[in-house]
Amino acid sequence: MNDLLLSIIVGIVAGFLAGRVMKGKGFGLVVNLLVGVAGAILGGWLFGNFGISLGEGIIGALLTAFIGALVLLFIIGLIKKS
Fold first, then answer.
1. Which whole-number Å values give the CA distances from 27 to 1, 63, 71, in the listed order?
2. Which of the 8 DSSP states describes residue 26?
3. Strand, helix or coil at 23?
4. What's phi and psi for 44, nearest 5 deg?
5. Cys staple from 69: which of 1, 5, 18, 74, with CB 3.0 to 4.6 Å?
6. Where are the domains of the chain?
7. Rounded average pLDDT per 10-residue block, the chain, 82 residues
8. Do residues 49 and 8 lie in contact, with contact meaning Cβ atoms separated by under 8 Å?
C-alpha cells in the first residue's frame, strides 16, 4: 500500500514538473498531474524493457516518472494537433 501511495505522489510531482517544462503543451494542472501518474507507469515500462535504470530510490523513480510524463505529454500534444 505504501509503494502505491509513493508511486502516485512521485507521478504527481513528475506530472507537475513535466507540465512546467512543456510550457506550451501542458493541458492544465489536473491533467498534467494525471499524465504524471500515467507517465510514471509508462517510464517504468519503457526503461524496464530496455534494461535502463536511472538509479534507485525516490530520485530514480522521480526521474523515470518525469521522463515518462514528458514522453506522454509530447504524444498527447501530437494527437491534439491532428
1. 29, 21, 14
2. -
3. helix
4. -60, -40
5. 18
6. 26-77
7. 79 86 72 83 86 85 88 84 70
8. no
CA of 79: how far to CAs of 23, 25, 74, 76, 82, in Å? Answer: 17, 11, 9, 5, 5
Using DSSP's 3-state secondary structure scheme, residue 28 falls into coil
How long a stretch of residues is the chain?
82
> Which position has the grid cell 517504468?
44
The overall pTM is greater than 0.85? no
The closest alpha carbon to 36, from 11, 54, 56, 68, belongs to 11
Q: Which grid coordinates belong to 68?
A: 515518462
What ranges in the chain are assigned the alpha helix state H? 2-21, 29-50, 57-81
